[in-house]
Amino acid sequence: MEITVYGPVRSATGAKTVSFEFDGGTVADAVAAFVDAYPRAEAHLYDGDDHDELRSSVRVTVDGERATMADRVPADASLTLMPAVQGGTR
């Protein structure tokens, strides 16, 4: 599986796009596998120890289409994780 990350999650991966083994499942399964591979990303994606839902500010796409945690993901899919980016001035 290939995942493209944005914002602070990139500091956890060291790259914009990373690949890892994933046998297919749900978006929740794919994100959990990603966090297993890149544990530093956990704090940017989940609130506390509850891994049932992502932070409300995190957006996920599967092959370019917006997805929910329950949506199915094939093993060869491309995911994008976009946490909210904060900061800046007007």
Structural account:
By secondary structure, this protein is α+β, with helices and mostly antiparallel strands. It has one domain (2-82): Beta-grasp domain (Ubiquitin-like (UB roll), Roll). Helices cover 21% and strands 24% of the residues. The protein is built from 3 helices and 7 strands, in the order βαββααββββ. It has a 5-stranded mixed sheet, with no helix packed on it. Strands 3-6 form a two-stranded antiparallel sheet. The protein is globular. It starts with a strand and ends in an 8-residue tail after the last strand. The model has no long low-confidence stretch (mean pLDDT 89).
And the CATH topology?
Ubiquitin-like (UB roll)
Extract low-pLDDT stretches.
none
Helix share of residues? 10-25%
Helix-strand makeup class: alpha+beta
Cα(first) to Cα(last) distance is 38 Å
Rg over alpha carbons? 12 Å
The tally of domains stands at 1
How is the main sheet built? Answer: 5 strands, mixed
CATH class group: Alpha Beta
Organism: Haloterrigena salina JCM 13891
InterPro entries: Beta-grasp_dom_sf (IPR012675), Mopterin_synth/thiamin_S_b (IPR016155), ThiS/MoaD-like (IPR003749)
Protein name: Sulfur carrier protein ThiS
Secondary-structure topology with pairs:
Layout (H helix, E strand, L loop, with lengths): L1 E4 L4 H4 L3 E3 L5 E2 H11 L4 H4 L13 E4 L2 E2 L5 E2 L4 E5 L8
Parallel strand pairs: 1-7
Antiparallel strand pairs: 1-2, 3-6, 4-5, 4-7
List descriptors.
single chain; 90 residues; alpha+beta; Ubiquitin-like (UB roll); five-stranded mixed β-sheet; two-stranded antiparallel ribbon; 3 helices; 7 strands; 21% helix
